[in-house]
Amino acid sequence: MTWVLDNLDLIWELTLEHLRQSIIPIVLSFVIALPIGWAAWRYTPFRGAALTTIGLLYTIPSLGLFGLLGAFGIPFLSEINLIIALTVYGVAIMTRSVADGLDSIDPAVRASAVAVGYGPWRRFWAVDFPLSGPVLLAGLRVTATSTISLATVGILIGVQNLGYLFTNGYQRRIVEEVLSGVVAVVVIALVIDLALVLLGRALMPWLPRRRESRAVTRRVLAEATA
Amino acid sequence: MNLFLDAFAWIFSPDRLTGSSVPLPLAIWQHLAFTFGSVAIAALIAIPLGWLIGHTGRGREIAVALSGAARALPSLGLLLLLVLVIGVVHKTEAAVISFVLLAIPSILAGAYAGFEAIDRAVIDAGRAVGMTPWQVLWKIEVPLGLPLLIGGLRSATLQVVATVTIAAYAGLGGLGFYFLQGIQLNRFDQVLGASLVVVALALFLDGLFALLQRLVVPRGVTGRARAEGRTPYLRPQKTADATGSTA
């Protein structure tokens, strides 16, 4: 514990950096995946191509993606490279969630909305979007957790965050330092996950509590076997 | 585009076979050996366990919680931690343990989800014609659950391929070695060349598994999952079984 106590300032500073570097891609991937997922759901011919391409992006190892992004003119050893790479992975997870979420809505509900005179734009925001909420939230939780843990790889391209504790601890042979980094990452992931659950409850008070865990179960299994 | 030309020049340079550095085919071989070795060990542990959970229906929360929690675990941290704890002398063993730990959750989820997705009526029908539990397992559950199991093996393999790349940081060889060396030498052609080889390897393995996933669908069920009518505007709700659209 002595190492941790002596270095609380460092851990806290890296934690804040880590949060900043993770939250940007989490938000960006939600915003970007929404229209792509909607288009994939709405236009059937586009669906297969879009979901396949996105699935392929997800298979690219992170170091490989850093290199590729560097070749496309993004400063290679930079925070921007990390944030874009994390966004790419986030979009890959979220797009599937958006398409599945829209799929999960009872068509009769959508038909009723059309019948009482909702136009496409208003129907999306007032009916489709809130009703696909549970699946979107489940996808966002998976995205958030994996983004936070993956961000640590940034240290290999010189981006400072909690990953610094891994490489620095390894070089100096301090087990405690590496362990504290792992624990800090897991704790942040859990805190953000909890925050998303609470946000979901605040935004979707009509949902029974049981459903959110079912949606996450489904999402986790879908991601594990996709 | 020059960058890509330089990268290809790096990949196909004769130095990759004979130069002072590690030969490229050897690095690819190391990468594949680590990946398949670890996935095989993980499969030996996770498949029976996942089938047990799927067959008995007990402990499914554990399977799901495990694959959820595994996402939060940073692979670089786990790897370096194990290497330090087990000892740098045994870093190969330490690395393999961390790869196995990272591969288990996906395989477990795939094995379990494959069983869970089977229509209960099919299993009841098996019982009704007099199958023993053992026959139900091997003649119904295992073949019908195979596509999702392969899906789990697929994501486990890709996860390990990515982690082996990172493992070069601990001096374990593989394709990540060129990447990290390229950064130190400030040679982007080498970084990009290594990236391209890793990406190609991952895509190749992904394609292989995709093919396998199609091949293992029992002939009696082919077309069933794909043929679900999809009308672009108002489409019927999917049957709300636990795993929905995982295929």
What is this structure, in a nutshell?
The complex is a heterodimer of chains A (226) and B (247). With 226 residues, chain A is an all-alpha fold. Chain A has helices at residues 2-6, 8-42, 44-59, 62-71, 79-103, 107-115, 120-131, 133-150, 163-171, 175-203, 209-225.
List the helices and strands and how they pair.
The complex is a heterodimer of chains A (226) and B (247).
Chain A: H1 2-6, H2 8-42, H3 44-59, H4 62-71, H5 79-103, H6 107-115, H7 120-131, H8 133-150, H9 163-171, H10 175-203, H11 209-225
Chain B: H1 2-11, H2 15-18, H3 24-56, H4 60-72, H5 75-86, H6 91-116, H7 120-128, H8 133-167, H9 176-185, H10 188-215
Helix pairs in contact in B: 1-10, 3-6, 3-8, 4-6, 5-6, 6-8, 7-8, 8-10, 9-10
What does the model show?
The complex is a heterodimer of chains A (226) and B (247). Chain A is an all-alpha fold and 226 residues long. In chain A, 82% of the residues lie in helices and 0% in strands. The longest helix of chain A has 35 residues, at 8-42. By secondary structure, chain B is mostly helical. Helix content of chain B is 73%, strand content 0%. Chain B has helices at residues 2-11, 15-18, 24-56, 60-72, 75-86, 91-116, 120-128, 133-167, 176-185, 188-215. Chain B is elongated and about 70 Å long. At the A-B interface, α3, α4, α6, α8 and α9 of A face α1, α4, α5, α6 and α8 of B.
Helices and strands of chain B, in order, run as HHHHHHHHHH
Main sheet summary of chain A: none
| Proportion in β-strands of chain B | under 5%
What fraction, in percent, of the residue positions of chain B are helical? over 70%
SS content category of chain B:
mainly alpha
Low-confidence stretches of chain A: none
Rg of chain A over CA atoms, rounded to whole Å, is 20 Å
Strand percentage of chain A lies at: under 5%
User: How many DSSP E strands of chain B?
Assistant: 0
Unreliable sequence segments of chain B = 225-247
Molecular shape of chain B: elongated
Secondary-structure element order of chain A, N to C: HHHHHHHHHHH
Using a beta-carbon cutoff below 8 angstroms, give the protein chain pair with the largest interface and the number of residues from each chain.
A-B, 66 and 65 residues
Shape call of chain A: globular
Cα radius of gyration of chain B in angstroms: 22 Å
Mean pLDDT of chain A: 90
Q: How is the main sheet of chain B built? A: none
The helix count of chain A comes to 11
Structural class of chain A: mainly alpha
Q: So what's the oligomer here?
A: heterodimer
